[in-house]
Amino acid sequence: MTTHPLEPVTFGELPLRIEDVLALANRQAQATLQDDTDYRQRIAKGAQFLDSLLDKEGVIYGVTTGYGDSCVVAVPLQHVEALPRHLYTFHGCGLGKLLDAQATRAVLAARLQSLCHGVSGVRVELLERLHAFLEFDVLPLIPEEGSVGASGDLTPLSYVAATLSGEREVMFRGERRTACEVHRELGWAPLVLRPKEALALMNGTAVMTGLACLAFARADYLLQLATRITAMNVVALQGNPEHFDERLFAAKPHPGQMQVAAWLRKDLAIDAPTAPLHRLQDRYSLRCAPHVLGVLADSLNWLRSFIEIELNSANDNPIIDADAERVLHGGHFYGGHIAFAMDSLKTLVANVADLLDRQLALLVDVRYNHGLPSNLSGAPADRAMINHGFKAVQIGASAWTAEALKNTMPASVFSRSTECHNQDKVSMGTIAARDAIRVLELTEQVAAAALLAANQGVWLRAQAEDARPLPPALAAMHEALAKDFPPIIEDRALEGELRLCLQRIAEQHWRLHA
User: Fold this and answer.
1) Which of 140, 178, 255, 472 has its CA at 20 to 30 Å from residue 249's CA atom?
2) Residue of 311, 410, 308, 339 whose CA lies nearest to 150
3) What is the CA radius of gyration of the chain?
4) 21-44: per-residue pLDDT in tens?
5) Is 334 a catalytic residue?
């Protein structure tokens, strides 16, 4: 049974934060739906207004017309009820890998939050069923490829609309099942989508926004982890902690840069007595770490703003203003802000990979590591010639870094005119978000390698007769790592340990600076 250690997340009139989506995606919080009478009446009013327009035979895009460039094609009233099913049916052409469970929950949360604004013309029953999908963990199988990010995430979100209607497949209780079977097992009647409801579900930015929430959370933790790894490498390489002096950063006061320097001072206990300095200036991957990581730290605030405004927006078309009895045709499905945020994030994160890769290169090289053994091998002298420690790990980290850097090409500038030139300028936001997730995966692999190597370097320094005690924060980290990752004395295959380290990173296992 799933436990919910965090406070429930309520969908309704109040805004959500990225952390709320993350808690739902990780099944750490229960989803609830605002249920007071006034709110339910406000949601219902939009659907009722649409019904009244149908009675008057009004022209409403996607309700009494075809979609996209077919908006000039009138749909007779006798076919209006069939239009929603046709919309999600012909969009059932997604390819690529399926979104994982965490990402799918984030997508469901993002779509539900958008529809809860009450300007999409959907029934309360649709909100309740979307909420039930989250509550009972009924996860549509959503192919991740096929969206150009305007008109929203049409193709991937068609799998949400179809499964709500009892079609296609879902993951339920660890098994791949037909949506129809799961509805029957739970005692639900599949929804018959009303006019505008399929469009409201599909014509929005929920896939890119859900992925963006997950990417943000991973990047935030990675920033803290990269700072901790840097501090460990300062110790392992006998670096100069004065590079992080508070007075130095007062002269160039970027807040994120100052924050990273403060974290490093705390990790290194910089105010405590230090060993005599070995050099005035370390190489840039140590000395300039706050300047590299600080850009990500400073960017997280505006990235959060872009993502959370999108998350808490009504982003389909048309917008239904039931109070003023107006149908407003626009382009809120355009995911430009998420596209730019994710293109920016993947560049920021790839720079973290590059920084850690350079630090690792220093650690393994006897020309630059200030007396550590070649490739950080802990083998005794009589076996040193056949042991190679972290040699291959450093090669792997370099490969992962190169791939991360390659994937920083911005997706948002590759707009393609589609759908008979109706969608002639599109955001590519979902591709940008997928790219950002991939760059994060690669950078976390670099971080895992760098963390294990830094820990080995710290252990090797501790073997010296004149070794100084580790600062408290680093001593605690070193002790925690030792439980899973013993020192490398004789060569061993490290894939299993790297994968375990990646698991620990995904779980945000170590309490760091936040």
Assistant:
1) 472
2) 339
3) 26
4) 999 999 999 999 999 999 999 999
5) no
Nearest to 488 by CA among 398, 384, 414: 384
Nearest CA to 496 out of 487, 484, 505 is that of: 484
205: nearest Cα among 455, 433, 490, 400: 433
Beta bridge partners of 171: 139, 176
User: What's the pTM value of the predicted model, to 2 decimals?
Assistant: 0.94
User: At 358, which amino acid appears?
Assistant: R
Catalytic residue among 61, 67, 334, 368: 61
* CA nearest neighbour of 397 among 359, 349, 430: 359
| Predicted confidence band of residue 53 (pLDDT cuts 50, 70, 90) | confident
Are 437 and 407 a contacting pair, CB within 8 Å?
no
The C-alpha angle 117, 122, 124, rounded to 5 degrees, equals 80
CA nearest to 434, candidates 156, 160, 220: 156
The residue range of the domain holding 72 is 9-204
- C-alpha distance from residue 215 to each of 28, 210, 307, 401 (Å): 18, 9, 10, 18
Report strand pairing: 31-33 vs 9-11: parallel
Res. 82 pLDDT band, cuts 50 70 90: confident
Structure tokens at 170: 């879902």
Q: Which residues pair with 176 in a beta bridge?
A: 171
Q: Which pLDDT band, with edges at 50, 70 and 90, does 356 fall under?
A: very high
Outline where 165-254 has alpha helix (H).
179-186, 197-202, 206-236, 246-250
Question: Do 329 and 464 reside in the same domain of the chain?
Answer: yes
Instruction: Flag whether 513 is in a domain.
Output: no
81 and 137 share one domain: yes
* Angle in degrees, CA 160, 161, 166, rounded to 5: 95
Residue 436 lies in a domain: yes
140 contacts 159 by C-beta, under 8 angstroms? yes
